[in-house]
Amino acid sequence: MPTTVALVLVSALLLATARSASALPADVQSALRTQKEIYVATRRADGSRSTAAPIWFWSDGRVLYFSTSPDSHKAKRIRKGSPVFFSLQGKDGPFFEGTAEIVTDLELVGRLGDEYSHKYWIAWMGLFRPRPGRVADGKTMVVRVTPTE
Question: What is the C-alpha to C-alpha distance for residues 98 and 118, in angstroms, rounded to an integer?
Fold first, then answer.
């Protein structure tokens, strides 16, 4: 039992440390908490940046999450290791770069769906929000983006 408590405390400390660090300026972190959409682009095979598309997202100001179709160009590029470029000011930037990770934790997906419901009225009605069942069935992909310096 003491080992379990120690592991929980160490995990909590590491999580708190990771959450306190951010590669984004404070004003951008604040804007991510209130902005309704961001523009997302990925890197093409030829090295150029794709056209940025507006998407719904959720962020705690440090990392951001969004969902997409597993068949979308951005999903295919992310699976191949593409960074994600995101802008708060439109399709022409300025852009911040981040490392993308596909989220497979269905409990986290459920919490994100709840966060979308607080942020978007139509998600509150049960529409257009991340759902664990759709992720489990491979119909939706959720992406976590950690901004890089």
Answer: 25
